[in-house]
Amino acid sequence: MLSKRLEDALNEQINAELWSAYLYLSMSIDFEHKGRPGFANWFRVQFQEEQAHALALIDYLHARDARPVLKPIADVPDSWATAKDAFTATLEHERKVTALINSLYATAEEEKDFATRQKLNTFVAEQVEEEETVQQILDDLALVGDDGVGIFQLDRELGARTYVAPNL
Ligand code: MG
Hints:
about 170 residues, mainly alpha, 5 helices, elongated, binds magnesium ion
């Protein structure tokens, strides 16, 4: 059985994943509104991934006969001046999520809950991927700078991203 402390911590993480989903949906809307459909698509896929993270934790709580609890989702910003700003905010946010996952992992270790620790391994690996992907896009953005053609090409490239359900 899950300890109450771990159950509460996992529920907090569900809220954090849903907040991430909300943040990326907001970015997607902002890009679409500003005529950047490729960036908008990339963030819409990101929105779907974050929902999958939340659902995986909800399923895990059910599997452990614990109770998923949905809490209010805090406000998110609704506008970013440049693509660089949005992806910088994304990298900062993903680093925060990595810290949350690490602290959840530490809690699972303290509670000697080996099943939860195992479950969180996939989340630890997922965070490495998230940060690497966003860092690569920031590197690309730094390379093109203010070049309109470069931004246009990057927008086309990110428009090709399709949602693949993460294996959690
Ligand atoms: Mg996530």
